[in-house]
């Protein structure tokens, strides 16, 4: 990666440099805030909100939910649609701000305009 042999890199360092958003994001039976912040537990509420905005989660979903970011998602996110779960996973990765992002059909449940918005935000978060 960038002309560096990954065999010479510590595993923790490599994991910190990579963010993966799978098609079916794993969510915990906790709040939306907790599930986004999971990638970087020291993140401020403002940073979590910014990541949620980039993922198209803030306005379209979180503000529509009665408890906002404190809404519990249920076991494995059962209270969210597939697209909502994907956006939580994308927000989680944006918050982590890794140097390498792998999207494994991470936007398959999203409409085209939301997908394009997220792709632009992910690119900007990687490039700084």
UniProtKB/TrEMBL annotation:
GO molecular function terms attached to this record: ATP binding; ATP hydrolysis activity; ATPase-coupled transmembrane transporter activity
Coiled coil segments of this chain: none
Positions of transmembrane segments: none
Domain ABC transporter: 1-108
A single Gene Ontology CC term: membrane
PANTHER family: ATP-BINDING CASSETTE SUB-FAMILY B, ATP-BINDING CASSETTE SUB-FAMILY B MEMBER 6
The name this protein goes by in its record: ABC transporter domain-containing protein
